[in-house]
Amino acid sequence: MHLDPFELHRPESVEKAVRLARELAPGFDYLAGGTDLLPNYKMHLNVRPHLIALDRIPELQGYDLDRIGAMARLADLDTDPEISKHYPALGEAVHGVATPLVRASGTVGGNLLVETRCFFFNQSFFWRASLGFCLKADGDTCHVVPQKEKCYATFSGDLAPALEVLGAAVELAGPDGHRRLPLEDLYAADGDGIQRHHLRPGDLLVAVHLPPEARRRRSTYVKLRPRPSFDFPELGLAVALAREGDRLTALDIAAGGLETYPRRFPSITDGYVGGTLSTDRIGELARTVQAAVRPVHNTAYPPDYRKRMTGVFVRRAVTTLWEQRGGS
Amino acid sequence: MATPRQPELRLLGGAIPYIEGPLKVSGRAEYTDDMKRPGMLVGKLLRAPWPHARLVRVDATKARAMPGVFAVLTGERYPTPFGVLPITKDETAIAVDRSRYIGDIVAAVAAQDELTAERALAAVEIDVEPLPEYSDPRVGRERVDVPIHEKGLNHSNIQKEVVQHFGDVDAAFRAATATVRVRASFAGVTHAFTEPQCTIAEATPDGRLTVWSSTQVPHYLHRALSEVLGLPMHRIRVVKPEVGGGFGGKSDPLPHEIACAALALETGRPVKILFDRDEVFYTNHGRHPTYNDVRIAADAEGNLLGYDIEAVIEGGAWSSFGTVTTYYNGVMAMGPYLLPSFRYKGQRVFTNRPPSGAMRAHGGTNIRYSVEVGLDELAEKLQLDPFDLRSRNALPPNSTTINEFRVTSTSFLKCLEAVRERSGWADKWRRLPYGQGVGLGCGFYISGSNSPIHFTPKMPQCTVHLKADMDGGITVHCMQADIGQGSNTLLAAIVAEVVGVSLDRIHVSPVDSDVTPVDIGSYSSRVTFMMGNAARKAAEGLRDRLVEATHQLTGYPREAIRVGVERFEVEHRPDIGATYMEALHQAIQTTGALQSTGAYTSPPVGGTFKGARAGTAPAYSFAAYVAQVSVDDETGVYDVEKVWAAFDCGRPLNRLAVEGQIHGSIHMGLGQFMGESMDYRGTRLMNPSLLDYKIIMPHQMPEVECLLVGADDPEGPFGAKEAGEGPLVATLPAVANALYDAIGVRFYDLPVTPDRVIKGLDRRRTDSRLWKGH
Amino acid sequence: MTTQRVLRLAINGQPVEVPSPPERILLDLLREDLNLTGTKRGCDLGTCGCCTVLLDGRPTLSCLTLATLAEGRAITTIEGISSGTELHPVQKAFVECGATQCGFCTPGFVLSAVALLRDHPRASRGEVVDAISGNLCRCTGYTKIVEAILAARPGGPG
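Output (structure tokens, whole complex):
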């Protein structure tokens, strides 16, 4: 299996990258670790004639507890005990990504911006041609929910829910300079499987910033998938909370693997903050989150099972964190 | 005169590392795709995007005209049908007239590189008339307008129907105190070996065609090439490089192998075809999706009175081994228990989906599941321990089943005893806390299909030639196909054992039809038994020549000379004798290099009724497994913690190989139970990838304790029987029965994924049925 | 036509120059341009691990690595693990424990294991399982592979 020819650009600064992006848009993709992009390119999925490799840009490299460069390798975070210690949800999320071989190349930015997935999209050219192309690649109809307006491809990244509950913000660079926004605002809650980001053409994800409070949170990330490695999340649930005495002082829940974007539930969780969490309250919380999610059948497990497990995972994760001894 | 038992074996019976191991671990073992031939072209296949279509026009003109394209072949060029079974030859190298599933080969191209080949394929113009599509084997069993194959029974899509009745099943059910009925469905599963199919073919101006291919059956490939290409076999040379796994997926001559050879003949250049991973899935030849319905009758004490079985198995687009599979889905229920009556109706039905074929524990897995789950239910009904139900019904040694299978050695009772004890069954069964459980599953399997597939010319099923020359090495020639199961090593070890020499003297010749005498292939678990016996004979012939030479050197009578280690010496006078080299050099004086030959033909067994041969074997293996599981009843996720695997393969000749086969079989069986599934929407395979086809990960593998308790088989080489397929069958029911013990739910639809476990639990709770208090 | 450049690669400790277009995949370059066929092609999509090489010592999928981006990094293939004809202890353990059957997945596992034991000479069974969780095997059920890696630890299997 070969790749179609492309031009490879290797800018050495954010400015150069953004300028190139502006020139080449829309005919380019950024290349980070390649573990998501290259398989899709080999299957002729929305291939572009130009790739802008990000491996030579110093500003994107490296990480510390406050700032994680977009090109920080997942394997580096995975093997760093400081990450797990201070941000358990992030440590657990990183550890669950694919396999150690993928994590060797894969990056934080790449995982945040991972392509959405669907069994009708992630197929060879031959397969898609034989059925008829879909809305997300070369066609005009969705095969999951037959219609021509909305794509239902599922957000399948592990890091986003974990970073969302830790209150992360992303730093973007564009033609008008750098800007920051909360991570959850990067994703289009009002979008679909194609228009899933609030990014402008050429925008480059530079880094993820973690606020000081994140270190004071108890957090966890639990992943539902058929096998303990390789598989994308069928449900990836992140919870962060803070407890003072018997009072819940912060609560955040985010879920990936269910909809077209990694979804937080502030309208649900805000109502619990300030109170205490009893078994009944946790059960109610779990049921409410479960009722709110709407997975479709484009992944390995049926949607009703994933929905039900959302409730189970919320209950278990919140209970574990609530009952944890000490702080984070 | 019977071959004397060798009471003490020096090599055999121990842990013998694979002789080619050092090459494999250093990346030096040569698989087909590692080879290059000068001027080699890239071959690629155009696959049908339609489930069922009449090919009205196939025009390769534009494709042929493209620069860098050396040949484009379409079906009518080589229309002769072939197939692994001589009685059901319905495949062609490239589709002629019709394509029958999404993925069927409709054209083949040879070009200078991959990109050019793909562009050429895209330039082939095909007009089609869509034909009716079939995706369910239960449909299409009545007369249809356009059967998938003309030869379907009564103009339907039934490829094969088997009806058998032994004893009086209806009387058995009338007399029964207890009956159970299991109706089960099984998704198709596939081999998923790591090495995709690859073939290189080269035709040279001296009139010879050489084909290197990743195959389990070089001899069947050789025959098929000759038949389809119209070339005499002696002008065709088939070579088997290292093979990266087969499990039955490479045990048919496959269309791409013939298409590759055809491209080589057409272009006069070597051509290589390497499958992309999705092509491996489209080629399939995996386990048949199955619907079975098994009724079991027993008396009050638990003696089995009979089975009444119906099965519908999905053949997909081609016949492959399917006629045999149709028999096996019934007759592989004939053991390990004594049955006084048996009725079976089996149908194999074509569909417009990737063809089913032979897959490890071929035809024996799905029926075994239903029988063993049924027996677990029967034991419950009769309030018997599942072990007691099995042991009272065990087939005795040296017995004949009602369908005339000849059973010789069986250590099934020993298997039961050993596994019951080692697993701690008595303290666990029905006694573990809710959510934990143990279950018993048993099985048996053929140690080689007794009859060859081809009956002309009449010939042995395996022949081995040895050459020993002055350098002291012994070369073994045999067309046996080592596909990772260790047959090269066994071959070498048997020769080394019998001749009394160091293993490093033995060189196993590469498999090459010009050089190595025919062995019919690695399938039906025949290699240890049949190749082993042939090798032993050949080695004894060589040994006898060296004993003769020692007699000449020492003057002592032949009968007084015994085989030592690198030495032949006089009984009770070990100081008198000759070293191996001395004896060898003595022996070659007049003839030069020594040659020896050994062959194996299985004895005639079985009945004479139609289909009697299916399931006959020169010996059978037996198994009794206990699995221990724990279940999370909120998520349906379960963990198979341990499997105690008691297995009777007679005398295990290479412990490393036998254990490895047990582990690998359990991995494959668990995969089928837990989540492997060829997922279809209608005729469309949804998961042709190793990401979406879920073979299990190391975290999911249980701890396995192998209990090898077999007694020597009287006809197996050194007492050995098979251990390649039998170890799989008992796995699935052991786990299913353990899940029942844990959470009180039975599963009749495989795979048993966590969402199905939750559904099962919901149903039990809806029925208000408590299990262990929950 | 895309721009072809001469790539300067460091493979098994030796400098190698190979002309390559930007879209050339490292796995293809190794197998086809350099005849280093020990690294295997199982799926081309990162779903099996047969193409594992070490990049700067880290087990990486060569089927998802552009050859250009491997310039300036140390590439180790299975051919670089033995010293001449002397097998590495991990390789010896695989042979002796029966951890290799058909052998097609073996180079990938050996590299994952060599890297693990280099960094964690006293790796536990759980760490071994994690480290090999990106390499598929269909023959062994992984059992003897885990055994071999544990046996290859400097302190032995105990």
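Chain C is about 30% helix and 15% strand.
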